[in-house]
Amino acid sequence: MQGFDCQNVLSRRARSFKLSPIQQLSLLAQRCNAINLAEGFPDFPAPLHIKEAAVAAITADFNQYRHVQGVCEKVASAFEMAHGVKVDPATEVTLCCGQSEALAAAILAVVEANDEVVILEPAYDTYEACTILAGGKPVFVSLDPPFWSLDLKKLDAAIGPKTKAVIINSPHNPTGKVFSKVELADITNLCCKHGCLAITDEVYEHITFDDVKHVSLASFPGMKERTIVTSSLSKTFGVTGWRIGWAIAPSALTSAIQIIHTKLTDSAPAPFQEAALTALQSCPDFYKSLKQEYQFRRDYVCNFLNDFGFIVHFRPQGSFFVFVELPSEVRFDDIEYVMEAINTLGIAFVPGCAFFNKSGAEENLKFHVSTDLAKKGLQMPRNLKGSNDASENLVSNPYKHRYIRVAFCKDISTLQAAKLALRRQCK
Ligand SMILES: Cc1ncc(COP(=O)(O)O)c(C=O)c1O
Predict the structure, then answer these.
(1) Ligand 1 atom 7: the closest Cα is on which residue?
(2) What digits encode the pLDDT tens for the residues 7-18?
(3) CATH for the 64-279 domain, from 3.40.50.10540, 3.40.50.300, 3.30.70.660, 3.40.640.10
(4) What is the SS3 assignment for 325?
(5) In what helix (H) or strand (E) does residue 139 lie, and over which residues does it extend?
(6) Which fold has domain 6-45+285-426?
(7) 263: number of CA atoms within 13 Å, CB side?
(8) pTM of the model as a whole
(9) 98 lines ligand 1 (CB under 6 A)
């Protein structure tokens, strides 16, 4: 009897997705026990007051499907306080399994086959993936390096009759850009002019530096009725594994998002919804020290990267990433550099191309086994010095292969270890 060919039954959709370079690198970094400056989650403990709330909820047997209306009320009142926009917690908030599910449910709720969704890149990769899963077509508009400026003419030209929505992520992963009020006002004008929706990703809303403030696009005149705001507890409270997020949207959209959320996952994890009640009532000092601590880490990391020849054109205004250009003498492209850094420095970064569409983002890391590394179960790129692949990439994508993303949401001891490793190599 013939075996069943599982590959054959895969949908075209499933075949079109690969593990992202971030996930591939994480696996590699784990196998090598590398210092992980790749992934966007903290390696330090979450705040005690919310952990205690989660433990209490588990002890109190909050084990079943659950929808905690109180969390929607806290989300709505926090949004009103921060942005002056009134939100009805009963009809305009959907609690989801992280921002990821909120974004997926939002896109599935509004995107029809062949609708276009405009994505500013570099971009977090789920926007493209969710658009494709919904049958839509991602349309990319590049933010211009080195300051990741928004070229309004390019955005205007990219929005057309088929555009259903524009996705705006601010504070921005991977660049750390926080969109200014002027930029948001310009985006508002374009959304109103073209009659399209905006979907925002505001997961880094509380992590901004210096005097920069996060402003939600939904707070601009005419935008509340055409914006789906998504965010979560993940980054603010360092609990990416709790899977608590939300979408705030006009009631007609919220009803659709709620139904899709129910069909996808039914409800967010019950004990963590209880803990979210506590988290969302954290005192102002919590948010103040969150900013201060991340700002300290940002400065520490930007300074040492600078000292070691990386080019920090743009000091992050928010989020917990810095997107830096490789030192000018480095001849590797971003992927080769990252592989080399895991091998020789024991540090994992993310290659910048992971945040750009097809020409870079779908690229599979080019693993080639080298003999002594193979013994460690590792794979490294071939032609480590001046590879042909690197020069091809550099010619066709002059900057998309010159950046790496460095996460600084790590314990100071982790960041110190990374600095030491870089210094050793520079000697
Ligand atoms: C810009 C951005 N949006 C969303 C997410 C995922 O958020 P959540 O954990 O709430 O699904 C991430 C995680 O890295 C992110 O960087």
Answers:
(1) 99
(2) 889 998 888 888
(3) 3.40.640.10
(4) strand
(5) strand 137-142
(6) Aspartate Aminotransferase, domain 1 (3.90.1150)
(7) 11
(8) 0.92
(9) yes
What is the residue type of 164?
A: K
- Non-local (6+) Cβ contacts of 22 within 8 A are 38, 39, 125, 350, 354
Cα–Cα distances (Å) from 272 to 66, 166, 178, 234, in that order, read 10, 31, 29, 11
269 cis-preceded (ω within 30 degrees of 0) = no
For the chain, the domains span: 6-45+285-426, 64-279
Q: How far is the C-alpha of 337 from the C-alpha of 270, rounded, in Å?
A: 42
Residues pairing with 290 in the sheet: none
CA of 321 to the centre of ligand 1 (A): 12
**Rounded distance from Cα 99 to ligand 1 centre (Å):** 6
Nearest atom in ligand 1 to the alpha carbon of residue 240 is 9
pLDDT tens digit sequence for 60-97: 999 999 999 999 999 999 999 999 999 999 999 999 99
Pocket mutation for ligand 1, best pick of 20, 94, 99, 273 (most atoms within 8 Å of C-beta): 99
Amino acid occupying residue 122: P
